[in-house]
Design a protein that fits this description.
Blueprint lengths: L3 E5 L5 E2 L2 E2 L5 E4 L1 H9 L3 E3 L16 H7 L1
């Protein structure tokens, strides 16, 4: 089973029978995380990528006229 990284929420000192490390990050399998997830004590830490929006294509004169 693969492990995912979870973040312990503020005030949570123990997760899955172990003390929460200073980093507040815990690697757990889905089975190990289930109880603490259900209790709202941890959340999945997602690596958030900054999405760069695609630049809008310039409007043709015909498209600009339709918008008026």
């Amino acid at each position: 089973m693969s492990k995912k990284t979870y973040q312990a929420l503020p005030g949570v000192e123990w997760v899955n029978g172990s003390r929460v490390p200073e980093s507040r990050e815990i690697k757990l399998t889905a089975a190990e995380a289930r109880f603490d997830l259900d209790q709202g004590r941890i959340e999945l830490k997602e690596e958030r990528e900054i999405a760069v929006p695609a630049e809008a294509e310039p409007a043709t004169p015909a498209q600009a006229a339709k918008r008026r």
